[in-house]
Amino acid sequence: MKRNIIFTLLILTGTLAFGQSNQKEKTIEEVVIKTEKTTKIVKKEGKYEVSVVGKDFQDTPSVWEGMKQIPLLSISDGSPIKVQGKVAILEVNGIQMQMDAADLESYLKTLDPKSIRKITIDTTPDSSYGSEVYAVINVQLTQREGSYQMGINTTNGIKTKFYNSTGVNYGLSGTKLRFYTSYNFGYTPTNNKAEVQQIIEENPLISVGYKDNNTFRSHRFFINGTLNIGEKSIIDFSGTYALSNSDKVGISKNETFNKGIEIDSKSNFFQFSETLKHNFNDDNTLKIGSHQVINKGKSDILGTFNGLQTDQQQVDTKTPIIIVFADYKNKNKLGETSAGIKLHNINVENNNKDIFTNSILDAPFRYNEKVLASYISQSFSFSNNRSLRIGLRSETSYINYSFREGIKEYQNKKDYTNLLYDVSYNWTSSGKWENNITFRKQIFRPNYNYLNPFKRVGSDITYESGDSDINPTKFFAVSYQTMKNKWSLFSLAGYMKDFTSSFYDLENGRINSTYKNFENLYVVQAGTEYNNAFLNRKWILKASAAVQYVKIDDKEYNRMLSKSTPSLIFETNNIINIGRDFKLNVNYEVNPTNKDGLIKHYTNQKLDITLSKKINSNLNIMFFAYDILKTNRTWEETTVPNYFYGTKRYADVRSFGVILKWNVTGKSYKPGNQEKTNDDTIDRLK
Predict the structure, then answer these.
(1) What InterPro entries does this protein map onto (predicted)?
(2) Which of 329, 389, 450, 646 is a good FRET partner for 242, with 20 to 30 A between their CA atoms?
């Protein structure tokens, strides 16, 4: 079997941003009152605190829209939240929100900005977080005893077809119990198009057009709450239940080639978590908890070629996950000491079937992974301008997996232990620059959805399969970041051992999309961001640029590699106050053409415009136009010898529509006069 490969690199580009407050003066009876509306960032213990009370943030229609103007954050509709280009987890009052990107976006779009007190951004998480956590955003709510909130929001838009997302939410804060619950329904039909080309060795060029119609429907229920069970103890709980289904019909064809595919998918997702936090005293805190997940899915796949059925497949998936943990923190003369232990058990069950006219070929895949992790972290505060953090984390994995397909059967067992570390030093230079340098070793494990080795019919002219024999990626990196006033700078140099990436495998004349470990990858990054306000704060600007260069070193594939070129990302966010409570938001992003060694990525750009109007204190309306130029495309070509695969794909992204949001808050009852000293902040579920 001859193998040729291409892969897509995970873009690690990062931008770092900080704001500076501008002031305007009002004279009243010879007394000068200074009001500050621009977001201010204060660095405390290596983290960046953003106070939003009385700022522009609280004048936006929702927390989601407000976060778009906060430095450091990259917020884009339909995409995960990022910090310095890295996907971030979100915490509310110190508790991680166990949601996917779509649920988080829906949740933040229902939150009233006036319910937020401050936002803390951690660009270098310590050893208490799992190694897969790249950045942390903690949103702290202003919880007033005896208050309630409820709201309704609806999004109606046109892509190729009409789509809708509608949600309702309700929250109540009592003396002992506080909770927030929501329901969201989504209906999204899309029409995707692509131009696909391939040349295999000496065979002639095949060029086909691809298009599909996909209809996605979802129902999501969410609840989060806290319960005071004493003066020193509190329980946090959260749960999510989601139902979804999609129907997809695709076709790839030219004058002599016609390949079709139909996929019907259904999924059920349930998760529940509970955390107990106990404060022994002001200096000692214990936290214990657990997290349970059950994810079920079923896909029926039908493939045709020139009008004849060629493939019929069925894939049933069940993934139960159980996590338990304990964490302890102690404040002492040196600083703060934290230690903890965590155990998670994950089972992946894939019941795969190839269905023929007179028979069914079963191909079951089973994967079990147990990870035992422990950590200790110590912070030192030398002065107001200097601090140091040192952390160690040990992770031991026990893995068993098996796969059977016809007479082919194999099973394997792998056990390994990794010692991870982080060293972070913060200081303020004589020129008032806030500096940080961090050394960190991380592990990136493969996505469990990509381990199933069963070969499935792909969307266009390709097939798809996973690879269970994948080693985790070890990432060694040193990063430096600095900021002063309106400017910030970011840089990183890193090395990846056993870098994991998707790639294409040529097998028996078929193109198969799968996964592979590459021996070594070297990466260098640098970025900057600028924030300012102009025209008496009528125009607020955030602009960033980042450059990245990667080099792959793999003995088996070095002869195939072409010369890499740097990649660049430029982003700008503009908020323009045009009066009468109207605000115009213009976002633009461009990624020029670049090569990563195996793939040439052509220029991609995106222009989004929104116009929001605050009708009254409870009602907001926003008109949007996303990807106006219809240039947010994926255009890639392989650069390996003796093999060519190219795709110019445009997902159904461009859309126009309107968002209506109604939200009301008030008192549910008159609270008593007795002062409470309860700590209502809970740390994240790890």
Answers:
(1) OMP_b-brl_3
(2) 450
User: Which H helix or E strand runs over 101?
Assistant: helix 101-110
The two tokens of residue 353 are 């079937």
Beta strand spans in 254-385 (E): 258-279, 284-305, 308-331, 335-355, 360-381
Concatenated DSSP letters of 484-553: ETTEEEEEEEEEEEEEEEEEEEEETTEEEEEEEEEEEEEEEEEEEEEEEEETTTTEEEEEEEEEEEEEEE
Name the helix (H) or strand (E) containing 661.
strand 655-667
pLDDT in tens, 617-645: 889 899 999 999 999 888 888 777 766 77
| d(C-alpha 348, C-alpha 398), whole Å | 14
The whole-model pTM stands at 0.83
Q: ∠597-601-602 over CA atoms, to 5°?
A: 145
Coil/strand/helix, residue 113 = helix
Tell me the domain boundaries of the chain.
20-26+33-142
- Which uninterrupted H or E stretch holds 63? helix 63-67
Q: How many CA atoms lie within 13 A of 498 on its CB side?
A: 11
Q: What is the mean pLDDT of residues 415-429?
A: 92
Range of lowest pLDDT (324-328, 354-358, 435-439): 354-358
Structural domain 20-26+33-142, CATH architecture: Beta Complex (2.170)
Which tens digits make up the pLDDT trace of 472-510? 899 999 999 998 888 889 899 999 999 888 777 777 767
